[in-house]
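ok here's the first one, seq then struct tokens
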Amino acid sequence: MTATVVETPRTGPRLRRWLFWILASVAAILLAGFTLLSSFRGLVDQGLYSATSPSSAGSKALVEVLKQQGVDVVVTGSLDETRRAVSGAQGPVTVMMADLYGYLDDDGLEALGDLDADLVLPTPSDDELDILAPGVRTTAVESSDDTVDAGCGIPAAERAGEVSQADIAYTADPGDATGCFDTGAGAYGLVRLDQGDRTVDVLGVSDALRNDSIPLAGNAALALGLLGENPTLVWYLPTSADLPEDAPPTIQELTPGWVTPVILLLIVVFVAAAVWRGRRLGPVVVEEMPVVVRARETAEGRARLYAREGATLRAVDALRVGTVQRLSTALNLSRSSDLTEVVSAVSAVTGRPSAEVYDTLVGAVPAGEADLQALSDRLLVLEREVRAATRPD
């Protein structure tokens, strides 16, 4: 019986062994926390058409250029703020409105239409078109070109020349509507309605407002021309503040104020309990335990597993590997000897043809358990002959 003595690891060697993983874990936690904090800080500014977002979907670049050109840009987040900005402006006003999440109902859209200001509506919904741009309808873009020419008399479009292909095309009833950037079949990427004392521009070329695509073609000239016609621009993205008073409450409004502190307290309690229990249990102590595993038991157990799974090839491979190793030892061959050297040496001491030895050690593939048994007997006979030939007299 052989006893295996295991010493209890000391704190110093264990700490040095795990130091790299501890430092890597701490670095990963800090990086994840920094990333999460950065994402929370920039969450508000990641939306499409955000006037303060430098992201690819934002419009900060356009807003900054408009300010440099002397346009007074007022960013608003509610209809009341927009109404006050329009009424307090000196001179004509342009309102750029993009209701991305449908906060404005019909009453809010009608109130927006009553403002004394030109409107620019990038990719508006059907409800917005019905109220703010009657007679204009959405349609599919049939042209596959990357850019499209102006083809109209609107000054901003003429200066642009050509712009990126529209995301959405529009058709308009004949009358006071002017279409620019023909996308095919009488549909346009820009439609301007002349409503007497003001204009309403329906813009399907959303690339003209985005940071990542405004430098392409004449996108910048088109956006600056439409939004910079008047000295004051109100950049209006509706928010939840525009929801009607009788609207269903949001999840934040339904959540009691004590829920968040309780969740934070539970997290602190969980971490404290984990640390407390971890310190209470202490390090693992490994005792000295004699263990003896007989080779016969291991071989029989492995054989039963192979038989149960029908792993004939795996079984014969195990037999051959063991036989080759024992033959190499009996023939005093080095560990680096290849199978060809083993076959030659076995053939030399036993007098058997090399082809027969190779077939026994490598080539023969048993078709079933009977063939496996026969091959096992051949391996055993071959090993006995080698031991008999190399055994000293």
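and now the second one, same deal
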Amino acid sequence: MTPEPAGIVVVGASLAGLRGAEALRRGGYDGPLTLVGAEPHRPYDRPPLSKHVLAGALEADATRLPELTSLRARWRLGSAAVALDRAARTVRLADGSVLAYDKLLVATGAQARPWPAETGGDLAGIHTLRGRDDARTLRTALVAGPRHVLIVGAGLIGCEAASCLRDLGLPVTLADPHPAPLANSFGTFVGGVIAGCLRDAGAVFRPGTQVKAFEGDAAGRVVRARLADGSALEADLVIAALGAVRATGWLRRADLMADPGGLTCDAACRARAADGTACPDIYAAGDVARWPIPLYEGRLVCVEHWGNAVEQASHAARNMLAGPGDQRPYTHLPAFWSSQFGINIKLVGLTAGADSVAVVQGSRASRRFLAVYGQAGRSIAALSFDQARWLPAYAGAILAGAAFPPILDATDQPRIERADPGFSPSRASASAPRPVEVFHA
């Protein structure tokens, strides 16, 4: 009797894993299909966790993603992948079981970067916010009415959490070593707008603040944060919003180009071996995948955005079913959105490397504007604060490699404000940005 083929194994049962599995079925794959997930939950949506779930408007278990295609899959949930044997084509799980595969899709995503245990990270009252259980636990702690909430890290999650907590009427201090919120994503020129939103919402923003350690009481519960300058901040609830690390630890001995920064892939989403060659049987998609983005001169990037997880998973699935001579490159314009302080923020493109920024619609003072980022005279990203009408046009200009800024004759464009984006703290700060140039279009 001919043994049943091993089939396709998808490691990672979140958005990218689910949509990748669905794309395999839609693409005609009818063989064995297994989805492996470290969490016990079926795939769920993460964006509502830092908004609706924390606010109490949505239960954590109501975030389950719709399954759009009949998967006819075997689910292995609640037991993470711990090792990959490429020679044997097997994946070992934490429960000791071993899964064979013909082809493998790595979609393990990323994990919240925890606060180190040696400097207080194991104290009760210190939370991260990445998964469904994190959100449920944190919501319960917020309902209890903490007296001093400290959020460490003013990135997207930190700012969204601060906005939500102020809506709940809770006291919030947001500490970050940079001079403005979202400085790494938007620069200080635009980040200063978020600083104003924090202030007006009643949150305390502490720029240039480095938290070194947490201290607890006799019961092992956090009571304060010790800062680099020797001072302290009282805190009985802490949200460590320190970013994420890619879930690649299980690939440590697999002889792949994998590290906490991601699993490196080629343009077709095939994982690269340590010697740089593409693995014909292993693909990656979503937050864990580090891939060369053609629009930005082949720069290797990990894109932690909802749209990329869906599109890259579908593209990887397509290539998994195609022959070796039909491996198509993945092209994608990164985009994400955030809702905070009553503002809908949308970004298309990558701001990294920008040397200029121009406000081409609206104004920062009104907190309704569209800004374009440029590098060496070319438009590379566009950012909307409640001003998304022109965003598709700028996305097209970015894809076309248009000059910076690309649209200068819009009827509702009274002036353009140009500045240094302020990605380096030495070049600009939220409180004292460099002079800006304003001219009529």
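notes on #2: DSSP finds seven helices and 30 strands in the chain. The two ends are 75 Å apart (CA to CA).
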